[in-house]
Amino acid sequence: MKTDDRQADMTEHSDAPSDEPMLRRRKAHIRLSNEAHLLACAEAVFAERGFEGASTAMIAERAGVPKANVHYYFPTKLALYRRVLDDVFEEWHCAADTFDSSDNPVEAIGGYVRAKMALSQRRPLGSKVWASEIIQGATHMQDILSERVKPWMESRVVVINDWIARGLLAPMDPRALLYMIWAVTQHYADFDAQIKTLSGKRALSKKAFEALTEEVVALVIRACGAKAP
Amino acid sequence: MKTDDRQADMTEHSDAPSDEPMLRRRKAHIRLSNEAHLLACAEAVFAERGFEGASTAMIAERAGVPKANVHYYFPTKLALYRRVLDDVFEEWHCAADTFDSSDNPVEAIGGYVRAKMALSQRRPLGSKVWASEIIQGATHMQDILSERVKPWMESRVVVINDWIARGLLAPMDPRALLYMIWAVTQHYADFDAQIKTLSGKRALSKKAFEALTEEVVALVIRACGAKAP
DNA sequence: GTCTATAGACGGATAGAC
DNA sequence: GTCTATCCGTCTATAGAC
Q1: For the region Disordered, what residue ranges are annotated (chains A, B) (predicted)?
Q2: pLDDT at site B27
């Protein structure tokens, strides 16, 4: 690991015993920084090849460190993979929080779709790791799905059913709506290779992605059959 | 390969020279039958593990044959993978044909969504192989995307824009609509592990899947903002 | 905390008997 | 067409010098 710049903050240390806590802090900083670097590289390799297809050697090479260092920071390939999944879920959870239960379903759903589209743009690799894991049976994240995603979904089902009962949305299966939002927004991260080939373009500009986001919001809002409260 | 039942149709052959064509036909039948069996097993393994994660040994084991037989019928793992992708595309293409350019966009789009949902139910493993391949960069099917999928998409964009110009659909980006249809319908095949965990059920009954299909059709038709012609 | 070297299992692919 | 045995490369993980 290229430690030259990472260790720059310790050049002014002395021999005094009061240095010990600082040393500890420095070491902790090195560990956290290297872990974060490896996690980012691992996310890219897992996205490009899936769990079994990825190798610790590829992750090490991308991080610019010997293979053994990967095992120093993460005991096994599976432990590293699991940490990537946990990280990705944390961001998913933040976006999920934007789906509030206000009286205005158009704002709540529209805001959630925008948050999910922004996440697809900001972290497409994480979305791909998540998608690959589920496609391959979700064996390494059953706990996340049942303990974290499922309760969230059930709470949103209640909210959506309430909106429907009050005539704010068309009658529908709330789960089908949530699956639709996930599928459509994550499609732009997971299937970007297909989209690039079909559009003939390399990637979307920031402006173009904003316009696309509003297209998706409009589609989803119409799909809801939202009426004025 | 368990040849006992597959060779039953040759027990009555004689020494006459007229047998030669029959022998050829029998051998051709064995080849086609074994190829089809291996392709089906390969599709399952590729769906469960992705291209790099799958091994020829796993495919052979699932097919009940020694590993060498896989290489007898398909020279390389990549050639076998490519044949699976071609097979999956052929069914995709059949479903795509149901999207006609009639004067009734509700019927055309609704029929297409039903065909795609039926395909997700009938062949979820193929959908997963396709999805994994695209997530991992679509490097092994660029030709299918640019030579087969892209022309189809462009022809449908023209049709949808025509419907919009005639006031039959709400103004929208036709590509965003097509991506939505793909994403939503394929979600039920690709993400079935997540859906099972979130719903707490093992799998959907035939009746339940029909009801779900109509939910999805209703969502998509509303998203189109379809009006009576 | 970093690195080289290597153990031990498994990968794709092939040779050659039957 | 089928199968056993095997080549050779890469895999995950670890040992041990620095």
Answers
A1: 1-22
A2: 80
User: Is residue B215 pLDDT above 50, yes or no?
Assistant: yes
Nearest residue in A to B219, CA atom: A223
Cβ contact B69 with chain D strand, < 7 A: yes
Task: Say how far apart CA B7 and CA A151 lie, in whole Å.
Answer: 55
Name the average pLDDT for chain B.
Answer: 91
Q: Each residue of A179-196: pLDDT tens digit? A: 999 999 999 999 999 999
Q: How many CB pairs under 8 A join A and B?
A: 170
Of the residues B179, B196, B199, B217, the best mutation for testing chain A's interface (the one with the most A CB atoms within 10 Å of its CB) is B179
Token duo for residue A90:
């944390």
Name residue A26's amino acid: R
Query: Domains of chain B by range and CATH?
Result: 11-74 (1.10.10.60), 84-224 (1.10.357.10)
Q: How far is B16 from chain A (nearest CA, A)?
A: 53
Sort out which chain B residues have CB atoms less than 8 A from A134's CB and list them: 190-191, 193-194
Give the pLDDT score at A2.
40
Q: What is the pLDDT of residue A20?
A: 66
Length of chain A: 229
* b/e per residue B138-156 (b: at least 16 CB within 10 A): beebeebbeebbbebbeeb
- Contact B51/A53, CB-based, under 8 Å? yes
